[in-house]
Design a protein that fits this description.
Blueprint lengths: L4 E5 L3 H22 L9 E7 L6 E6 L2 E7 L3 H5 L3 H23 L4 H12 L4 E10 L5 E9 L4 E9 L4 E10 L12 E4 L4 E5 L5 E6 L4 E6 L6 H9 L7 H7 L10 H7 L13
Parallel strand pairs: 1-2, 2-4
Antiparallel strand pairs: 3-4, 5-6, 6-7, 7-8, 9-10, 10-11, 11-12
Helix pairs in contact: 1-3, 1-4, 3-4
């Protein structure tokens, strides 16, 4: 069964432009803690934030998606100058929306109360292990990949633990565009070549990062298998932290990774409706 997921969006451009980044951070944190909650035939909550509604909250169920139209008095956020307090307000809005859906459909609420408490307790720093730790061949070093997201930056880090002294080193692997919410096409696995060299590969084992511990040097290289190098370069452009949302949507016309060749892709690309073009933050 797929993990339960939450997205927040709005058709109000003022809300998007002013609070979109904060909603993105909080919704992704909340999503982490509801991921393993099981509700039959439900895959996603979509919370649509609006400044005016005929009723306070409208709830709908479309196949496996629960859509919640939530009214928001933006004065609370406009007047709150402390970022952490704005995050708490947004988390309250998200939690209230989900609980209203639980009331409407009779879903149990205990796990959602727990998810709310967990999101509060981490202080709104969205940081977690993406690729589990793996030891070097001599067992002296342990490497893992960590995702760290704030309102203004999304980065992947290499965390190195030197076991004899229990000392740690953190190296920025790559800074990414904040619109991304999945990373297996960037880093999926870790392989120690020897005790000094680590390679991080994406799921298709075509895009790699190599890190040399003693030199502190990072490099990227390709081993095309499913795609050619031109395609892989376009994939890498999607990670540029300076990419605008318009450029991001343009590049995401890239075909799905499962297509076998670029020629077949070109004939289908006009009809390809990329899931990343939904109206979310």
């Amino acid at each position: 069964m797929n993990k339960l997921f939450l997205e927040v969006g709005s058709s109000d451009m003022r809300i998007l432009n002013k609070f979109g980044k904060e909603f993105l951070v909080v919704s992704r944190i909340y999503s982490r803690f509801i991921a393993n909650i099981k509700i039959e035939n439900l895959a996603k909550f979509y919370v649509n934030i609006l400044e005016s509604l005929p009723q306070k909250t409208d709830v709908f169920l479309f196949e496996k998606v629960c859509e919640i139209n939530k009214q928001l008095n933006t004065h609370m956020l406009d007047e709150e100058l402390v970022e952490q307090n704005r995050y708490r307000i947004i988390l309250d809005i998200i939690s209230e929306s989900v609980l209203s859906a639980c009331d409407y459909f009779g879903w149990p609420k205990e796990d959602f109360h727990l998810a709310y408490a967990q999101a509060r307790n981490i202080g709104f720093l969205n940081e977690y292990v993406l690729v589990k730790p793996k030891s070097s061949k001599n067992r002296l070093n342990v490497a893992s990949v960590v995702v760290s997201q704030t309102k203004d930056e999304l980065s992947l880090y290499l965390d190195l633990l030197y076991k004899p002294t229990n000392s740690t080193r953190r190296v920025k692997l790559i800074q990414l565009v904040t619109y991304l919410d999945r990373f297996d096409d960037i880093v999926y696995s870790i392989r120690w070549v020897n005790d000094e060299e680590i390679i991080f590969s994406n799921k298709d084992k075509e895009i790699h990062f190599r890190y040399f511990i003693n030199e502190g040097k990072m490099e990227m290289f390709f081993t095309p298998n499913i795609h050619d190098e031109e395609y892989l370069n376009k994939c890498v452009k999607l990670w540029d932290p300076n990419l605008t949302i318009e450029e991001f949507h343009e590049i995401t016309q890239l075909p799905p990774l499962s297509h076998p060749s670029l020629e077949e892709i070109k004939t289908k690309i006009q009809n390809y409706d990329n899931v990343m073009k939904k109206s979310t933050f």
